[in-house]
Write a structure and sequence with these properties.
mainly alpha; two-stranded parallel sheet; two-stranded antiparallel ribbon; 4 strands; elongated; Teicoplanin_resist-assoc; VanZ-like
């Protein structure tokens, strides 16, 4: 029976890196928007929550039926009698209450283990609710019940229509045990939270002046901006606007940031902006933006665009195709080496930042300060 629990857990750990990769982008955006930076305690806690939810979900749905056209359950798919597990235990158990030496048998019996499993399944959920999300016990009770209801509904509907019939019973006792587990976890978190950093106090003593715009943050902004810019370039192309590459990059990366004081959509989402490095010119000038993004998009990406288009021309001589390929390789590998060099040298600027005398800064949000009552009372 223990093998049936280990099998879904193994699959959850295998799938976790792929799900975590999909989770990372929205996680980064939310953290940057809400707090202005990434705190390790928050990151570890939320990724542990993701791992737990994956394990819980896999334990509920696996193993799957061998075919989508699975037969209906012989004894029905609903068990709506509360505390039916007590009857099942008394019916199946080999424990004799008159002989204490037989009590240990219950720890290997199906009915007992199923109840314990359903309680243990949601204990971590209650702990996360209390420690990280700081919910009240009533909300914890409701959310634990809703999580259990989601699990039971998933089984009853054959994973929402993927399978013809339910392949596990919708059991009201599971709702009771899962909800109980969530509340036990809620109470356990009361004790654990006293030995861990308080979530609402993580931002009280951070030194904002020491925080720099990370390359991860810049990459997120770059991907968002690249998507919007590319969409704009396609629209200009469809409307027969001449040289759409140059016009779209001028509008999106030079004119708009000049009007918005160094902010693009991607930068706004992750709370960063471009400013001048000159102490008496905090606002970035149109000339500085032209140099900065002209070097990056018109020179670097522009050369990439021209050389790539030249290489695929059908009538080009082999010599020129090879020369363009070599130039493209040299340009890209040089930029990559420069990027890696700046990445490992803290505080160094990229070439287009140095030449334009510009730099990126964090646009800090107004963080909510804990009330005096919250700061003085114990972590409960």
């Amino acid at each position: 029976m223990y093998q049936s629990y280990l099998f879904p857990i193994a699959y959850a750990f295998i799938a976790f890196p792929f799900v975590a990769a999909l989770f990372t982008l929205p996680f980064l955006i939310v953290q940057y928007r809400k707090y202005g930076y990434i705190h390790k305690v928050r990151a570890i806690t939320l990724y542990l929550l993701l791992l737990y939810l994956m394990n819980a979900f896999f334990l509920v749905i696996l193993p799957l039926p061998s075919s989508r056209h699975n037969p209906a359950l012989a004894n029905g798919d609903l068990q709506l009698l509360p505390l039916q597990f007590v009857y099942d235990f008394l019916k199946e158990t080999s424990v004799s209450f008159a002989h204490p030496s037989t009590y240990w048998h219950m720890f290997v019996e199906r009915a007992f283990l199923q109840v314990i499993f359903n309680i243990l399944l949601t204990i971590p959920f209650g702990m996360f609710l209390r420690y990280y999300f700081r919910v009240r016990w009533v909300n914890g009770l409701i959310l634990s019940f809703l999580l259990s209801l989601f699990f039971e509904t998933t089984q009853l509907t054959g994973i929402y229509g993927i399978y013809d019939h339910a392949y596990r019973i919708f059991d009201v006792d599971d709702l009771l045990c899962n909800t109980l587990g969530g509340m036990l976890g809620f109470m356990i978190a009361e004790w654990i939270a006293k030995r861990l950093p308080r979530i609402e106090h993580l931002d009280l003593h951070i030194d904002r002046s020491s925080k720099r715009v990370s390359y991860t943050r810049r990459a997120v902004a770059f991907m968002i901006d690249l998507f919007i810019w590319y969409t704009l370039m396609i629209l200009l192309t469809l409307n027969d606007v001449p040289v759409p590459f140059w016009i779209s990059s001028s509008i999106y990366y030079i004119l708009i940031p000049y009007w918005t004081h160094g902010i693009t959509v991607g930068k706004w989402i992750v709370r960063i902006y471009v400013s001048s490095t000159h102490p008496d010119h905090s606002r970035v000038s149109l000339l500085a933006l032209t140099i900065r993004y002209g070097l990056l998009y018109w020179v670097f990406l522009g050369l990439n665009n021209i050389l790539s288009d030249t290489i695929v021309l059908p009538d080009i001589h082999t010599f020129w195709r090879a020369l363009c390929s070599l130039l493209l390789f040299v340009i890209d590998i040089s930029f990559l080496m420069h990027l890696m060099s700046c990445f490992f040298r803290k505080g160094s600027l990229l070439f287009y930042e140095k030449l334009s005398h510009t730099k990126q800064h964090i646009q800090w949000p107004e963080l909510e300060q804990p009330s005096a009552d919250t700061q003085n009372k114990p972590n409960s």
